[in-house]
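Before relying on records like the one below, remember that each one covers exactly one chain. Contacts with other chains, cofactors or solvent are not represented anywhere in the record.
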Amino acid sequence: MSYLRTFLPWIVFAVIPSTQWQWAALAGLVIAAAVIAQQRAAGTGWDALIIETGSGLYFAVLAVIAFTDPHSGVRDYSAALSSAVLALIAGVSLLIGKPFTLGIAKRTTPREYWNLKPFIRVNAVITSVWTAAFAITAAVLGVLAHGGHGHSATALVVQIAGFVVPMVFTIRYVAIVQARAPRAPQT
């Protein structure tokens, strides 16, 4: 559920028709702000809201552009730009040593594991896969947009795959890591 909540603004933005891109950007902004407010009220730290915060900032800027100039060329590349921004956010989180998945993983992992190198390493791997998926998705969507197919069914499939592939990887990788982890002796 954490990943769905984290990426909900992007999902809503992707499913609203591109002819309504300004409303899609505004919806993304409102949802990002609502998620941040709800999570902060629940005691979630900013380290667990890296994508949400970046999402809010992105959709604020995009909404301003979209409402100021609804016919802006940005519209045609908005899907590619969205994935590129996600790749940038995820990549920067890695560069600063705070993989965005770390905050999400802390929600379901006991505190005694949070500072262990294997836990941090697993999240660096997962965040790297998300970063690569976003970057590849951005590139493919950019090519599609350049060819005039940026708002096609193919582009939607690419966007969906850009989320589903790293999500499946995350689920499977975590299961493998947990299965291989040494168990504490039972008394």
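Residues 2-180 form one domain.
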